[in-house]
Every structure is written in C-alpha cells, then in structure tokens.
Design goal:
With 69 residues, the chain is mainly alpha-helical. The chain is built from 3 helices and 2 strands, in the order αβαβα. A two-stranded parallel ribbon has the order 1-2. Strand 1 (15-18), helix 2 (24-37) and strand 2 (41-44) form a beta-alpha-beta unit. The radius of gyration is 12 Å and the shape is globular. The mean pLDDT is 83.
Length: 69
C-alpha cells in the first residue's frame, strides 16, 4: 500500500534528510516526492553541524538554480 508522506514534506521548500535514520523505502519515497514536486532535496550521511551547514548551502544553491532569472 502506498503511504502518504506527511503534509510538512509536501509544504517544504527544502528537504534535508539524514540517510542513516530512514529505511530504503522511505529514502526512495522522499526522493521521488521531491523530484515530482521540484523540491530541492539533500541527503546527509552524518549528523553534524558542518554536514547540516553544507546541506543548507547545497539546498540553497539547488533552489537558486531552479528559480528563473
């Protein structure tokens, strides 16, 4: 059965997800959802401040690349 993703994910402008904290199924559902909706999605391997900061920078760059102008 297809499980609905939380409304928060549907409303997100950027998704940052730690890969070690989710199942393979959840990983692919999040990735597919983001691709379908044009939402920048960044996966990080380690739970650290520097990894989070890099993910924010990468997500901001992805969002900027998708914006016209």
């Amino acid at each position: 059965a297809d499980v609905e993703l939380p409304a928060e994910l549907a409303a997100a402008d950027l998704v940052i997800c730690q890969t070690g904290c989710i199942s393979h199924d959840a990983y692919w559902r999040v990735k597919a959802h983001c691709k379908r909706h044009g939402t920048p999605c960044v996966f990080v391997d380690t739970p650290s401040r520097s990894a989070f900061e890099r993910a924010l920078e990468q997500g901001a760059a992805s969002a900027g690349a998708e914006s016209p102008g």
